[in-house]
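Example complex used in Figure S2.
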Amino acid sequence: MPIADPRPGGRAARVQQAVHDAVRALQADQDNDFITVPKIAALAGVAPSTIYRRWGDLGGLFADVAVARLRPDGPPDTGSVFDDLTAWAEQYIEESASPTGRKFMCDMVSGGADRASAIRGGEYARERVKTMLERGRRRGERVPDLDDVIDVVLAPIVYRIIFDPDDVPTGLASRLVRRLFDDIPSPHTDPA
Amino acid sequence: MPIADPRPGGRAARVQQAVHDAVRALQADQDNDFITVPKIAALAGVAPSTIYRRWGDLGGLFADVAVARLRPDGPPDTGSVFDDLTAWAEQYIEESASPTGRKFMCDMVSGGADRASAIRGGEYARERVKTMLERGRRRGERVPDLDDVIDVVLAPIVYRIIFDPDDVPTGLASRLVRRLFDDIPSPHTDPA
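Predicted assembly (384 residues):
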């Protein structure tokens, strides 16, 4: 199991960074099936036992790397929730709909015996949406429910990437965000 | 790679049945990590080489078993699309939201190097929805778009099961189907 939030700059954080970097470098050249713990350990400059102790197995490590990819700097901040959500959804599609992105998503879902990485991936997405909605609420905007953002916008994107990767059309993000805002019962500022 | 649609009653079909049964029996007792090709082969009465030749690797075989689970007798037929979709969504949740169901879903997403099993799983779901919608159209009902059924009803269910398994509340199926019908622009028979 990965250690949750190792102190930045601590040894745990440095090891994690080196191991993640090694995995990413190996994944750039070859399929997961050909990557082994000794290869990763050699490239990262750590003992194989460090990897086994910390991540349990390769599936858990691949999943951890996939989740880490989902944590960029912070959600978009355009000044309106409608535009923030659209930009965020577009960015999510861009990062995940490529063959590599899809592979990461599948690693995240499958990795680790307890499937904890998928749940962490889901939590990160919720946190980012929550940030955008709270900013909008502070600005006095009428904002959608967090759960509705997940159901109406994020879920169809993730579903298509996993189950129907040839069906992620241009404009999907804004179409889904529009559906979300159409569903808000009370009047709201028309984003058009 | 599994052979597509082996003739029913043929040797290929009998082998597939025996191997699937063996995997299911082993999975009832132990985690996938402890299941090996020789164990499956012994229980199924086939040579290990048969399994390697046909399924490539264990991931592909687990994924194939998971997809096969999604193919029950046929979608519900209650006489109205609204009720059919609700019954189908409830059934989908019931089959997938248990820890076992979730494990199968994750196997399906991760299994096989080319991830083809997830795509087949997506196709089966579309076929079943298409059947329900076509029946409704023949009865003269106003029916939602196939893509909207996937986006509005199926995607949120699958997303929650994978990423947020503690958040699959009672009544989710009918709430999502109601949202779908609320979105149909022209007047429709109120299902309430």
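Chain B touches chain A at residues 31, 33, 57, 102-103, 106-107, 109-111, 113, 115, 118-119, 121-122, 125-126, 147, 150-152, 154-156, 158-160, 162-165, 167, 176, 179, 182-183 (CB under 8 Å). The radius of gyration of chain B is 19 Å.
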